[in-house]
Structure formats: C-alpha cells, structure tokens
Amino acid sequence: MTPPAPDGLDGTVLVVGTGLIGTSVALALRRAGVDVLLSDVDDVTLRVAQEAGAGRPLQPADRPAVVIVAVPPRHASQVLAAASRDFPEATLTDVTSVKQGVLAEAVSLGADPTRLVGGHPMAGREVSGAAGARADLLDDRLWVVTPLPSSGIEHVRAVHRLATACGAYPVEMGAADHDTAVALVSHMPQILSSVLAAQLIDADPDHVRIAGQGLRDMTRIAASNVPMWSDILSANPGPVADVLDGVVGELQRTALALREMAGTVGRGDGPSVVTEVLTAGVAGQQRIPGKHGAAPSAYREISVIVADKPGELARLFAAIGDAEVNLEDIRIEHVFGRPSGLVALFVRPEAGERLIDALATHGFDVRA
Amino acid sequence: MTPPAPDGLDGTVLVVGTGLIGTSVALALRRAGVDVLLSDVDDVTLRVAQEAGAGRPLQPADRPAVVIVAVPPRHASQVLAAASRDFPEATLTDVTSVKQGVLAEAVSLGADPTRLVGGHPMAGREVSGAAGARADLLDDRLWVVTPLPSSGIEHVRAVHRLATACGAYPVEMGAADHDTAVALVSHMPQILSSVLAAQLIDADPDHVRIAGQGLRDMTRIAASNVPMWSDILSANPGPVADVLDGVVGELQRTALALREMAGTVGRGDGPSVVTEVLTAGVAGQQRIPGKHGAAPSAYREISVIVADKPGELARLFAAIGDAEVNLEDIRIEHVFGRPSGLVALFVRPEAGERLIDALATHGFDVRA
C-alpha cells in the first residue's frame, strides 16, 4: 500500500476543486510529502479540505509547478484556460473522465497547448458513493495520461510523476484513443446494463423472481448515479454511438436468426448465427485481463456450500488461510428465499488440489 | 441443508437419462429414501450412475409411479411419449430448460396430456462445468413446475413433491409464462453479454486493459458453454426475439440521442433521452429481489482494503464473524496489475455500524 516516492515531483501542486477526487488527490500528494495548494469557488468546501489536511489555501503570491483541475466536467475547460493565464509556467492537467472535448475546448479558450496534458484517474465505482475523500482512493488504480501532440515532454513527465505520487499507475494514450477505449469498456456496458434492467420494470414479479446470478451481474451497474452518468455519456457521444451501432447490428442479426428459427420468416442460417454470436462472446471475454494480468480462464473455480450464519464465512476463509492459498476472486451465488449460499473460489490452478484438500479436511462441502 | 421429507412421494421413480442432472436428481431422491430406477441408452453411463448409488437399472417388470425424463432437450419429447406408452399410469415430467415446445411435441407424439407436467430445475451456472453429479446439486434451488391445462392435479402434486424431495423449491407457472420469463431473465442477459464481449475481439489491447469491474461483470456469462446455449436459445426463439426487439429499440433510441448530442444530426432531446434510459435502468434494477427477497438497495455497502496475501481474507472474515454480522453479499474489485483488493461487504443496514466498529478494531482500512 505504501506509494512509491514522488520521484522528483518538485515544487508545489495546486489542486483546483476540492470535491471527492480533488481532495483525495491532494491528500495522496500530502502523504507523499508534496506541498499542496488548494482552491475552490466554495469557501466551505475549501475549508473542509484544508481541515482534513489536504493542503493550504492558494495565496496570490503562490507559483505552483503543477495545476490539477478537479472541477465538474462542464467547467474544466474554462478553469484550465484560466490556470494557464494565471500560472504561465505551470504544467496543466485535469481529471475528467472523457478527454478529447475538454482538452480541445481548453486550448480554444486559451490554455497553452505545450503545457496541457490530460489525465483520467480511474477511481472505480466507489467514487459515485457518499464516501468522503481519502488519501488512498487512487492507490493501485490506473491513471490514464493523455498528452496533446503539442505537449512538452517535461509536462507529460510531470503528470506521470503526479499519478505515481498518488499511488496510481500511469498509462499513456492519446485523448481520442482514451475516449474510444472508455466508450467500449465503460460507457457501452453502462448503457447495456441500464437498458436490460429497464426491461424488468413492467415484468411479472414471478418472472423476475426466477432470475439467477447472470441477470444480477448484468444489471449491477444499472443501479448507477444518473446525473454523473448523464454527464459522462454526454461528453463522449460520438465514440459511444459508434460502439452502440456495432452492438445494435449484432443484436439485430441475432434477432433475425431467432425469428428464422421461430419459423416466422423463411428458414435460413439461424442456428449458425446464434452459435457464431455465442462463440464470439467466448473469444471476446478471454481478452479481458485477470487480476494479475492473467487470462481469467487461467484460474480454477472451486465451489463450496456455506451455511448462511455468522461465522461460517470466517471458518471458510480461515481454512483457506491455513492452506496458504491465495484467492484470485470470490463470488457468492444467490438462491432465492433461502438462507444458504454457494461460494465460488478462484485460485491459480497449481493451488487447486491443496485448497480442495484443506476444505475437505475442515468439513466443507466442496464442489470442485 | 437437510431436505424436507418426501411427503408422500410414494412408489418408485424412474430417471431416464443419467447425465449430470438425471444422476443428481436420482442421488437426491435416494438420499430422501426414494426407490429409484435408472435407464440410459448408454450402458457405460448407466453403470457409472448405478455405481455412484443413484439407483438400480430398470427391469421389464418395473412399474414406476413417476418418470423423469432427463435426456438432451432434442430427444425429450420422444422419450416422454415413449414413457407414456410404456407406463400408462405414471406421472410424466422432464427437466428441459425451455418448456412450451417440448411439452406440445410430446403430446403430439402421443404422451398422455393428463399425466404430463413439465419441470425445470434451475441448477445454476455450475451445471455447465465439468463437475459430476451430486445429491445436493438442487438443494435450495428453484424448480419451476409447468402443468398443462389438461394435467391432472395428482400428477401436478407428484412433481411438486419430487422437487421438494430433491431439496428444491417448486414454483408453478404455465409453460408459455415460463418461457417468456427465462427469455427475459436468462436468455436475453446471455445474448447481451456475448455480444458485448464480442466487441472486444478486435479492440486494442491497451483499451481492454483499462477495463474495470463493470465490464468484467457484464461479460462473465459470455464465457459460456456454446453448444448448451445454442440449444437453449434454439428452443425459445420467439420469446427471446420479442425481448430482443424491445432492447434493440431502446438501444437505437439511445444511439440516436447520442448522435444528436455529437452534433451530427439536428439537435433534439438527446440529453433527456439518455437521462431517461439511465433512470429506467435504476428502476428496473430495483425490481430484482435480494438474497432473502429484500430489495438490493436495502443493504449497506461497506468497503475494505485487503492486502493480497494468504490469510488476509481469513483475518477479515474472522473479524466479521466476531462481530456476529451476517454478510448478504461480497464482491472483490479487481485492480489491474497489482496485488491488492477492495472488498465490498453488503450487510443489513442495522448491522452496518457494528461491522464498521469491529473492522476498525481489527485494524482494517474501512471505507464505509
């Protein structure tokens, strides 16, 4: 958990906007020994951040080496442009989750394109929760760094060091590349989850009742923060629409194949299309890296039946700890209306037999 | 885990087809003290089931009270019709996962519609794995019972008792109703997951690399058994195509809204459509029952940072056990390339503070 040393992040850093992300970044920088300046249009918010130890308020004489703009997305371009004028030497960066529009607009508003480098710290789902700022919010997270073609190398390096100082892992790509990537891996899944969940609104309760784990997994992110996601999707409409068109095309092809199979349109290649769609899904899923970069299929799944009472999971994990086996993942399967559960444990293949033996020794009901 | 008594499941039960489900049902019935007969076209499979203690081979003089047909879906109708002729008094049921087609075809092939009652034991995802038959495979699972309008009440009751004897929970609905339900809660999620995952096939590895938990959850079931799912979808094409049409329509509306927002078509109600789609997703997701039938939003989420080394999860769950708090759900969030994890614990709201205190006492890094 200890973050790497800041590695030459010299001078003070100004954080503009002391909301959840801004204050968390400031706390992480303070933890790394960086001198942090804070500013916010809201005095109360600023004082809360200051009292949390996130830094000291910006004074007119201050000359930060780096300015991080962590204001709401719709204000980011303007604030970047203003910071460029106020601090004519500083590296300028932001934390918005869609990059192309905000950077282009900042430059058009007068931000110096040689000092501007975009950033997207990927804090994960807890960001939308009510949790307060934390110094460790970005520990072990990816922080996408998106330089402009005009960005000076020293400014790009400064943003890399900033990410590292916050405990995150910098990953560099172009702004357009970033937006295409998040359209595919983040924005598209959100839309599919929302649209799937919306189908349940008018469904018979008895139909919803027989839902299994698949529907639960597929609709989890539908329980999202609507204003936040509206803003995100609004900032990336083109790339998301492009991915969506591809998905809609495949779904239409699948629907046509199913209609053929239902006999309502002329018989054709229905079954082979369905098989093709499923096969492509298997191939695509295998491209997602596992927890340590390993392919997910590299893990062995071992299922255990656990009684749903206090202490049973403790007993299970104590047995796993005794076996000195490290879990790569856990899933608990839900069974409607009954106090018991199937727990799926994922381990590296070489640890599988050892774990099974240990669980059996402890009297667990194992389904290897 | 102890199943209820068979409650009057009198006489012998014949299981036709000793694959995973058939043998598991047979073992569960044996566990409940029922006299079980076995038959399979494959002598080797039959002998394996017999040696596992699943029952004794059917003899010409046997007169089972109930016949459960657990053969591959494409043979089920024929086998039901044959069983109807061979055993003119027996209750006839099956275990296929789509009901209307198989039952209608069985009747058209001569199965007695007064003695035929469909069934769908919902064994969950582990069924597609390589795991062998287990007496407890259906413990605590739902078993959908689908009578025909012509089914005699004593035969419907016999299938309910059969499900109960196997440790499962019978839920009764019409065959058409069942097929509509599974199209929505099971078959549609499978198609969406497969099509989403397929979009990753040609994606830049750097793009896939920044995927978070949302994409992982949404593509988990894409790693499916292709022949099994081809058969399932092929057996329910109409209802699945109907749900798919609704989803495609909503996705097209969303894509159009995004295109409007991207400025490539005339400005319109883009942002409000996107907000509407997200809002409907939140409402739909709330309709899914929680583990004990409670709404998912009824749980409090408490996140903990756990070091990725043997024993840490054991320490966490020991602390939870000490607090006498029962977990409703657990999720482990993955972070690319780093050995540490955020564990999300879900508990009933009244247990939240107690758990937070207990975890803090044990030195855990809690993000309530």
General description of the model:
Two copies of one chain form a homodimer. Chain A folds into three domains: 13-173, NAD(P)-binding Rossmann-like Domain (Rossmann fold, 3-Layer(aba) Sandwich), CATH 3.40.50.720; 180-285, 6-phosphogluconate dehydrogenase C-terminal like domain (6-phosphogluconate dehydrogenase C-terminal fold), CATH 1.10.3660.10; 296-367, ACT domain (Alpha-Beta Plaits). Helix content of chain A is 45%, strand content 15%. Chain A has 13 helices and twelve strands. Chain A has helices spanning 20-31, 43-51, 73-86, 100-108, 153-165, 175-198, 205-209, 213-219, 226-235, 237-261, 270-285, 312-322, 352-361, and strands at 13-16, 36-39, 56-57, 66-69, 91-94, 117-121, 142-147, 169-172, 300-307, 329-333, 340-347, 365-367. In chain A, α10 (237-261) runs antiparallel to α11 (270-285). The radius of gyration of chain A is 25 Å and the shape is globular. The two termini of chain A are 33 Å apart. Chains A and B meet through α6, α7, α8, α9 and α10 of A and α6, α7, α8, α9 and α10 of B.
